[in-house]
Amino acid sequence: MTEQIMIESWPRAILHVDCDSFFTSVEQAINPELKGKPIITGAERGIVSAASCEAKALGIKRAMSLSEVAEKFPGVIMLQSDYETYSIFSKRLFDILRRFSPMVEEYSIDEAFCDITGLRRVHHCSYPDIGKKIQETVQKELDITVSVGISLSKSLAKLASKYRKPKGLTAIRGREIHTFLKNTDLQKVWGFGPNTVSLLQKHGLKTALDFVNKPIEWAEKLLGKIGVEIWMELRGQYAYKLNEEEKKTYASISKAKTFTPSSSDVDYVYAQALRNLESACMKARRYNLAANKITLSLRTDEFHTTGVEMKFSRPTAMVMDIAPTLKMLFRELFKNGQKYRQTQIVLAGLQDDTENQFGLFEDPVKVVKSEHISNAIDEINERFGKHTVFMAPGLYLQRYFNGRKRKSLRNQLVIKGESVRQHLRLPLLNYIFSTR
Ligand SMILES: [Mg+2]
Q1: How far is the CA of 20 from the centre of ligand 1 (A)?
Q2: Whole-angstrom distance, CA of residue 138 vs CA of residue 146
Q3: What is the CATH number assigned to the segment(s) 90-234?
Q4: Which of 74, 144, 316, 370 has the most CB atoms less than 10 A away?
Q5: DSSP secondary structure string for all residues of 320-351
Q6: What is the mean pLDDT of residues 259-282?
Q7: Residue 89 CA, ligand 1 centroid: distance in Å
Q8: What does DSSP assign to residue 167?
Q9: Which class is domain 252-424?
Q10: What is the 62 CA–ligand 1 centroid distance (Å)?
């Protein structure tokens, strides 16, 4: 009664990418000294939210309590989750996939489906080799590893990527589905929860192959529409379409600073917001992202928060581009006489900055120039420490010392600024402006 499931090898090619220990891999990519060490994230929640493969090898599992980890596995490094950075890596991953195929589904923060049907000729290689190229590109550009599964449907591709991990590459061709399903337990099938599995087991089924060998009417009677879809998917028939909608909500960078004592000094509060902007832009540029939107929020010392948002005419991650907008927004929000305790900047609508286009009335030479300046500033700050070079109003951050106003601010600041410039032989940067 067992019939051949598929004859043709690749009527359709669906690729599933699953990052290996995603959160901890990202941590290891940003802090190379963590590589090869057992690390976990989730310190802020008190339970393990992700464990590196080194930690998994020790026996650490997701959702284990941190006190248990600390007791049983001394020496494990516990980190706070940094979802913003994970989201940026996720975004970069999806951007890479879109270079290989326009049809990408962002399934979760660390998983995606990709329809690569008919793209062998474009990439001059076989479907498994496209998977290999994706793995190499992600490794090279993001310094994390992914496991890839390729098959005729989403369900099969997802089973394939789980088959070998980490760094696995598994392709299930039409004629191999049969053998693969024979070795697949029911609980491994995408969409089969524990209740469904025990129901199927009551009918004497053990493997995914047992399920697809039942007539489709049987699957429908027992499990309804979902049963039919899974039955088709497992036979290599494409029942689940890709959802190609690009998820934008998670792609934002926020930087906030709470200062004590609170302040009603307009220059000082603006300088804090500008410093937030510098940090946010620095982060965006580090990951080659540009923002479409900025939000500025100010929190008063009575914990009342007001915010205002603005869209850019062109995506950017350059402080010099955004500062005039920030200043405008700041003027709108800041109330004289009001004391503030926190500033926050959110850069949102992040996108790959290589897609940037110049605005119609913009001088491309000027844009390229400010890009060069931004890159130079990044380099200096990387070498000599964060905020070695900063926008002039940032000088007002030093107006106070232990909450008391300094007397000779001006002299002190000029000397500091000049010495940095002289030391680095930098020309004067002509984007200094006053906040008055
Ligand atoms: Mg994963």
Answers
A1: 5
A2: 8
A3: 3.30.70.270
A4: 316
A5: HHHHHHHHHHHHHH--TT--EEEEEEEEES-E
A6: 93
A7: 13
A8: S
A9: alpha beta
A10: 12
Query: Which residues are tagged catalytic?
Result: 111
Place of tokens 């070079």: 389
Q: For residue 56, report the distance from its CA to the centre of ligand 1, in Å.
A: 13
Tell me, in angstroms, the distance from the centre of ligand 1 to residue 165's CA. Answer: 10
Distance from residue 161's CA to the centre of ligand 1 (Å): 10
Structure tokens at 367: 């844009």
316 vs 431, residue with greater confidence:
316
Predicted local confidence at residue 273, as pLDDT: 95
Reported residue count of the chain is 436
Report H helices in 143-265. 154-163, 177-182, 194-202, 208-212, 216-234
For 107-142, what is each residue's pLDDT tens digit? 888 999 999 999 999 999 999 999 999 999 999 999
Residue whose pair of structure tokens reads 């959802």 in the numeric block: 243
Contact between 344 and 268 (Cβ < 8 Å): no
Q: Residue 306: in which H helix or E strand, if any?
A: strand 305-316
DSSP letter assigned to residue 112 = E
The residues facing 293 across adjacent strands are 311, 348
Stretch 275-297: mean pLDDT, rounded?
A: 89
- Tell me the two tokens of residue 27: 């941590």
Q: Which pLDDT score, from 0 to 100, does residue 293 have?
A: 87
Tell me, what amino acid is at 281? Answer: C
Report the C-alpha gap between 124 and 130 in whole angstroms: 9
**Chain region(s) in the chain for CATH 3.30.70.270:** 90-234
Q: Tokens 């000082």 — which residue?
A: 268
CATH level 3 topology of 22-85:
MutS, DNA mismatch repair protein, domain I (3.40.1170)
Q: Terminus-to-terminus CA distance in the chain, angstroms?
A: 84
CA distance 101 to 120: 11
Mean pLDDT, the chain, as a whole number?
A: 85
Query: How is 369-434 classified by DSSP, letter by letter?
Result: HHHHHHHHHHHHHHHH-TTSS--GGGGGGGGEETTEE-S-HHHHHHHHHHHHHHHHTPPPPS----
Give pLDDT tens digits for 5-52. 656 789 999 999 999 999 999 999 999 999 999 999 988 777 788 999
Ligand 1 centre distance from Cα of residue 176 (Å): 25
CATH 3.30.1490.100 domain extents, the chain: 252-424
Residue 212 has pLDDT above 60, yes or no: yes
Q: What per-residue confidence (pLDDT) applies to 335?
A: 94
CA 4 to centroid of ligand 1, rounded, Å: 32
Residue 346 has pLDDT above 80, yes or no: yes
What's at 19, amino acid-wise?
A: C
